Amino acid sequence: MEQKSNKFFVYIILTVNNKLYCGYTNNISKRYHEHISGKGAKYTRANKPLKLVYIKEFKTKNEAMKEEYRIKNLTRKEKEQLIENYSN
Q: Is residue 2 situated within a structural domain?
């Protein structure tokens, strides 16, 4: 039986056609593999994932959902800056 994590993650995936997809989960590895296999989200079925470019951990689902909402409302340039700061 799979144990539920008490951590939550917000992530950004870069797709093969240079799009950015943001989501949240409590199991980052499982969720990314769902995206790769075409079972993660309608968006990533049409825009195949290339790699995870951003991950941030949260203690509660509510915090993660708020951050996902905030990121989804950023401009492309602001998202790229967020990813660049994460990478460095």
A: no
Please check whether residue 85 is in contact with residue 56, taking contact to mean a CB–CB distance below 8 angstroms: no
Q: Is the pTM of this model over 0.85?
A: yes
- Domain span holding position 71: 8-87
Residue-by-residue DSSP string for the chain: -PPPPS-EEEEEEEETTS-EEEEEES-HHHHHHHHHTT-S-HHHHHS-EEEEEEEEEESSHHHHHHHHHHHHTS-HHHHHHHHHHHH-
pLDDT at 2 over 70: no
Number of domains in the chain: 1
Each residue of 11-33: pLDDT tens digit?
Answer: 999 999 999 999 999 999 999 99
**Residue 43: pLDDT above 50?**
yes
**In this structure, what CATH number is given to the domain that contains residue 48?**
3.40.1440.10
